Amino acid sequence: MANRTVKDAHSVKGTNPQYLVEKIIRTRIYECRFWKEECFALTAALLVDKAMELKYIGGVFGGNVKPTDFLCLVLKMLQIQPEKDIVVEFIKNEDFKYVRVLGAVYMRLTGTSLDCYKYLEPLYLDYRTIRKMNRSGEFQTIHMDEFIDELLREERVIDIILPRLQKRIVLEDSNELEQRVSPLEEDLEEMDISEDEEAHRSPSPEKHRGKYKDLDKPSNRSPSPKYKRSRSRSPHRRDRHKRKSRSRSRDRHRDKRHRSPGRRHKDDDDRHRKSKKSKRDRHHRDEDRHKDRGDKHRGDKRDKDRSRHKDRHRDHGSKDSQEIHEANETRAKLGLPPLK
């Protein structure tokens, strides 16, 4: 009796709601301790308290196929079949994330395609992390929006085969569902608008002044804390300094404009004299350079003539010695004394 569906329950997808869970897994749930002790005689009001105590989600785990507490509560909801308003409140609950996941799974199993898209797609904006137990009994961390995406796209979640879901584009073509607009598109449009405004916005002169000052600052130099505060001048000293600088600039300007003509002619004569002297020095340097080149050329020619005369004398001497040697050989054959 404890495992039977309530009498006034409506059939889901043409069958008993509990039959949405496979028989082998359903049998394991009926035999587990949590189902017998915690899920006995639960109502929709008491189910909320049990859902708030959940710490993770999952299907079955271990070698002997043990069901998790989350899976037991899913089957209990299929058994008692709570009203749709209660399930919607589960989904809208923001304080307890596992209560929201429980309501989302039950809505995906029992709700129509239109209800699934209507109530589950807003959960894409929930980025909280939830713990999930895998088949080997180990925990892994996923996000709420990832789990909702699995409910809407996958065929099997937490070891339950999900009913077929109609394509969203079909519902949009039949005007039963509005076209979905991602919230990211609004953020992207705002970013584009802000970038365009920054590009067209003219930079203020204060920014230019600040940049110019930063460039003029020494990079690796920092003021000493001892001399960090600059000594301020008194008003009388500042005025005296301004008057001095103004009078110096005025005198310098007057000297430039009112220079005497005699001084001007003297400067021209000095400039002309210096140019003539530089030309004369340049002429003397050129003459000395040509003279040095001529002396060097004559010396080279003289050396060449000497070497040529020595070579000719050496050749003539070698020719005479060769003739004397031949004559001595001839005289030796005839028995005459050699020449000296």
From TrEMBL:
Superkingdom of source: Eukaryota
Keyword GTP-binding: no
Segments for region (Disordered): 180-340
Residue stretches of biased makeup (Basic and acidic residues): 198-219, 284-308, 317-332
InterPro entries: PRP38 (IPR005037)
Keyword presence, Nucleus: yes
Locations listed in the record: Nucleus
GO biological process: mRNA splicing, via spliceosome
Protein name from the UniProt record: Pre-mRNA-splicing factor 38
